[in-house]
Amino acid sequence: DAKTTQPNSMESNEEEPVHLPCNHSTISGTDYIHWYRQLPSQGPEYVIHGLTSNVNNRMASLAIAEDRKSSTLILHRATLRDAAVYYCILSLPQGAQKLVFGQGTRLTINP
Amino acid sequence: SAVISQKPSRDICQRGTSLTIQCQVDSQVTMMFWYRQQPGQSLTLIATANQGSEATYESGFVIDKFSISRPNLTFSTLTVSNMSPEDSSIYLCSVEESDTEAFFGQGTRLTVV
To answer: Mean pLDDT across the stretch A86-107?
Structure first.
Protein backbone atom coordinates (compact mmCIF):
# COMPACT_ATOMS: atom_id res chain seq x y z
CA ASP A 1 0.00 0.00 0.00
CA ALA A 2 1.27 3.44 -0.91
CA LYS A 3 2.15 5.55 2.09
CA THR A 4 0.93 8.99 3.09
CA THR A 5 2.67 11.57 5.27
CA GLN A 6 0.77 14.12 7.32
CA PRO A 7 1.76 16.56 10.06
CA ASN A 8 1.06 15.15 13.50
CA SER A 9 -0.93 18.16 14.58
CA MET A 10 -2.26 21.51 13.43
CA GLU A 11 -4.06 24.34 15.11
CA SER A 12 -6.43 26.93 13.75
CA ASN A 13 -8.98 29.46 14.89
CA GLU A 14 -12.70 29.20 14.65
CA GLU A 15 -14.27 30.61 11.48
CA GLU A 16 -10.94 30.63 9.65
CA PRO A 17 -9.99 28.35 6.74
CA VAL A 18 -7.85 25.31 7.45
CA HIS A 19 -5.52 23.64 4.97
CA LEU A 20 -4.50 20.10 5.91
CA PRO A 21 -1.63 18.79 3.77
CA CYS A 22 -0.87 15.22 2.77
CA ASN A 23 2.14 13.91 0.87
CA HIS A 24 1.84 10.70 -1.14
CA SER A 25 4.88 10.65 -3.42
CA THR A 26 4.55 6.92 -4.22
CA ILE A 27 0.94 7.13 -5.34
CA SER A 28 0.07 4.95 -8.32
CA GLY A 29 -2.03 6.01 -11.25
CA THR A 30 -5.08 4.12 -10.03
CA ASP A 31 -4.98 5.16 -6.37
CA TYR A 32 -7.81 7.32 -5.13
CA ILE A 33 -7.12 9.88 -2.38
CA HIS A 34 -9.57 9.58 0.50
CA TRP A 35 -9.97 11.72 3.59
CA TYR A 36 -11.66 10.54 6.74
CA ARG A 37 -11.90 12.18 10.10
CA GLN A 38 -12.42 10.81 13.57
CA LEU A 39 -14.19 12.98 16.08
CA PRO A 40 -13.53 12.29 19.77
CA SER A 41 -15.05 9.02 20.96
CA GLN A 42 -16.48 8.19 17.53
CA GLY A 43 -15.65 5.98 14.60
CA PRO A 44 -14.10 7.57 11.51
CA GLU A 45 -16.37 9.30 9.05
CA TYR A 46 -15.91 9.92 5.36
CA VAL A 47 -15.02 13.47 4.34
CA ILE A 48 -14.13 13.49 0.66
CA HIS A 49 -12.24 11.63 -2.04
CA GLY A 50 -10.76 12.32 -5.45
CA LEU A 51 -8.56 10.95 -8.22
CA THR A 52 -7.10 13.80 -10.26
CA SER A 53 -9.39 16.80 -10.25
CA ASN A 54 -10.17 19.05 -7.32
CA VAL A 55 -13.37 18.09 -5.53
CA ASN A 56 -15.91 19.98 -3.45
CA ASN A 57 -18.69 18.77 -1.21
CA ARG A 58 -20.69 20.18 1.67
CA MET A 59 -18.00 19.31 4.20
CA ALA A 60 -14.77 20.30 2.51
CA SER A 61 -12.72 20.74 -0.65
CA LEU A 62 -9.90 18.54 -1.86
CA ALA A 63 -7.10 20.12 -3.86
CA ILE A 64 -4.90 17.60 -5.68
CA ALA A 65 -1.50 18.56 -7.05
CA GLU A 66 -1.00 18.18 -10.76
CA ASP A 67 1.57 15.41 -10.27
CA ARG A 68 -0.74 13.83 -7.64
CA LYS A 69 2.12 13.50 -5.19
CA SER A 70 0.36 15.68 -2.66
CA SER A 71 -3.10 16.89 -1.76
CA THR A 72 -4.71 19.37 0.61
CA LEU A 73 -7.96 19.08 2.47
CA ILE A 74 -9.55 22.49 2.87
CA LEU A 75 -12.09 23.32 5.53
CA HIS A 76 -13.39 26.69 4.41
CA ARG A 77 -14.63 27.95 7.74
CA ALA A 78 -13.62 25.85 10.71
CA THR A 79 -15.94 25.36 13.63
CA LEU A 80 -15.26 23.82 17.01
CA ARG A 81 -17.00 20.67 15.77
CA ASP A 82 -14.26 20.22 13.19
CA ALA A 83 -11.74 19.36 15.90
CA ALA A 84 -10.76 15.80 15.05
CA VAL A 85 -8.01 13.57 13.70
CA TYR A 86 -7.94 13.77 9.91
CA TYR A 87 -6.66 10.81 7.92
CA CYS A 88 -5.42 10.91 4.33
CA ILE A 89 -5.65 7.42 2.79
CA LEU A 90 -4.83 5.98 -0.63
CA SER A 91 -6.75 3.07 -2.03
CA LEU A 92 -7.94 1.42 -5.17
CA PRO A 93 -11.53 2.05 -6.24
CA GLN A 94 -12.43 -1.62 -5.94
CA GLY A 95 -12.39 -2.81 -2.38
CA ALA A 96 -11.64 0.77 -1.46
CA GLN A 97 -12.97 0.21 1.98
CA LYS A 98 -10.03 -1.90 3.05
CA LEU A 99 -8.46 1.23 4.42
CA VAL A 100 -4.91 1.55 5.68
CA PHE A 101 -4.84 4.34 8.24
CA GLY A 102 -1.71 6.37 8.94
CA GLN A 103 -1.29 8.42 12.09
CA GLY A 104 -3.31 11.34 10.74
CA THR A 105 -3.31 15.01 11.73
CA ARG A 106 -4.87 16.06 15.00
CA LEU A 107 -6.64 19.36 14.32
CA THR A 108 -7.31 21.71 17.21
CA ILE A 109 -9.72 24.60 16.74
CA ASN A 110 -9.39 27.57 19.04
CA PRO A 111 -12.51 29.59 19.87
CA SER B 1 -25.84 5.85 4.33
CA ALA B 2 -25.42 2.65 6.31
CA VAL B 3 -26.15 2.71 10.01
CA ILE B 4 -23.98 0.42 12.10
CA SER B 5 -24.70 -0.68 15.64
CA GLN B 6 -22.05 -2.26 17.80
CA LYS B 7 -22.62 -4.08 21.06
CA PRO B 8 -21.40 -3.71 23.70
CA SER B 9 -20.29 -0.09 23.51
CA ARG B 10 -17.79 -0.77 26.27
CA ASP B 11 -16.79 -3.56 28.62
CA ILE B 12 -14.30 -4.34 31.34
CA CYS B 13 -13.12 -7.95 31.25
CA GLN B 14 -10.87 -10.15 33.32
CA ARG B 15 -7.68 -11.41 31.75
CA GLY B 16 -7.95 -14.90 30.33
CA THR B 17 -11.60 -14.50 29.37
CA SER B 18 -13.22 -13.93 25.97
CA LEU B 19 -15.50 -11.23 24.66
CA THR B 20 -17.77 -11.30 21.64
CA ILE B 21 -18.51 -8.01 19.92
CA GLN B 22 -21.52 -7.75 17.66
CA CYS B 23 -21.89 -5.56 14.59
CA GLN B 24 -25.31 -5.04 13.03
CA VAL B 25 -25.90 -3.10 9.81
CA ASP B 26 -29.24 -1.73 8.66
CA SER B 27 -28.71 -2.87 5.06
CA GLN B 28 -27.20 -5.83 3.28
CA VAL B 29 -23.51 -5.40 2.58
CA THR B 30 -20.99 -7.65 0.90
CA MET B 31 -17.89 -6.89 2.92
CA MET B 32 -17.45 -6.06 6.57
CA PHE B 33 -14.20 -5.06 8.21
CA TRP B 34 -12.93 -5.20 11.75
CA TYR B 35 -10.37 -2.70 13.03
CA ARG B 36 -8.49 -2.25 16.28
CA GLN B 37 -7.49 1.12 17.68
CA GLN B 38 -5.04 0.89 20.53
CA PRO B 39 -4.89 3.80 23.01
CA GLY B 40 -3.63 6.95 21.35
CA GLN B 41 -3.01 5.14 18.07
CA SER B 42 -4.52 4.96 14.62
CA LEU B 43 -6.74 2.19 13.31
CA THR B 44 -5.32 -1.16 12.25
CA LEU B 45 -7.27 -3.59 10.11
CA ILE B 46 -7.76 -6.97 11.77
CA ALA B 47 -9.67 -8.85 9.11
CA THR B 48 -12.16 -8.73 6.28
CA ALA B 49 -15.36 -10.75 6.58
CA ASN B 50 -17.42 -11.87 3.60
CA GLN B 51 -20.66 -13.73 4.10
CA GLY B 52 -20.32 -17.43 3.47
CA SER B 53 -16.55 -17.62 3.55
CA GLU B 54 -13.72 -17.60 6.04
CA ALA B 55 -12.50 -14.22 7.17
CA THR B 56 -9.26 -12.93 5.69
CA TYR B 57 -6.83 -11.88 8.40
CA GLU B 58 -4.14 -9.23 8.15
CA SER B 59 -0.57 -9.90 9.13
CA GLY B 60 -0.19 -10.16 12.88
CA PHE B 61 -3.76 -11.26 13.55
CA VAL B 62 -4.75 -14.91 13.90
CA ILE B 63 -8.08 -16.68 14.04
CA ASP B 64 -7.33 -18.34 17.38
CA LYS B 65 -7.13 -14.90 18.97
CA PHE B 66 -9.61 -12.93 16.85
CA SER B 67 -12.39 -15.20 15.66
CA ILE B 68 -14.86 -13.67 13.22
CA SER B 69 -18.26 -14.90 12.13
CA ARG B 70 -20.36 -13.58 9.27
CA PRO B 71 -23.62 -15.55 9.27
CA ASN B 72 -25.55 -13.20 6.97
CA LEU B 73 -25.28 -9.98 5.00
CA THR B 74 -26.21 -7.68 7.89
CA PHE B 75 -24.35 -9.12 10.87
CA SER B 76 -20.88 -10.06 12.06
CA THR B 77 -19.17 -10.87 15.34
CA LEU B 78 -15.61 -10.57 16.56
CA THR B 79 -14.54 -12.73 19.50
CA VAL B 80 -11.36 -11.74 21.30
CA SER B 81 -10.08 -14.79 23.20
CA ASN B 82 -7.78 -15.36 26.16
CA MET B 83 -7.57 -11.64 26.69
CA SER B 84 -4.65 -9.80 28.26
CA PRO B 85 -4.26 -6.11 29.15
CA GLU B 86 -2.54 -5.62 25.77
CA ASP B 87 -5.89 -6.31 24.13
CA SER B 88 -7.35 -3.18 25.70
CA SER B 89 -8.41 -1.18 22.66
CA ILE B 90 -11.34 0.16 20.75
CA TYR B 91 -12.66 -2.35 18.26
CA LEU B 92 -14.58 -1.00 15.29
CA CYS B 93 -16.50 -2.59 12.49
CA SER B 94 -16.87 -1.01 9.10
CA VAL B 95 -18.88 -1.72 5.98
CA GLU B 96 -18.68 -0.97 2.31
CA GLU B 97 -21.81 0.54 0.84
CA SER B 98 -20.46 2.02 -2.33
CA ASP B 99 -17.13 1.99 -4.04
CA THR B 100 -16.25 5.32 -2.52
CA GLU B 101 -17.32 5.49 1.09
CA ALA B 102 -16.89 3.37 4.17
CA PHE B 103 -19.07 3.60 7.27
CA PHE B 104 -17.90 2.83 10.77
CA GLY B 105 -19.61 1.85 13.96
CA GLN B 106 -19.09 3.83 17.15
CA GLY B 107 -16.71 1.19 18.40
CA THR B 108 -16.45 -1.08 21.42
CA ARG B 109 -14.12 0.16 24.11
CA LEU B 110 -12.54 -2.87 25.77
CA THR B 111 -10.54 -2.73 28.97
CA VAL B 112 -8.84 -5.90 30.19
CA VAL B 113 -7.84 -6.00 33.83
So the answer is: 83
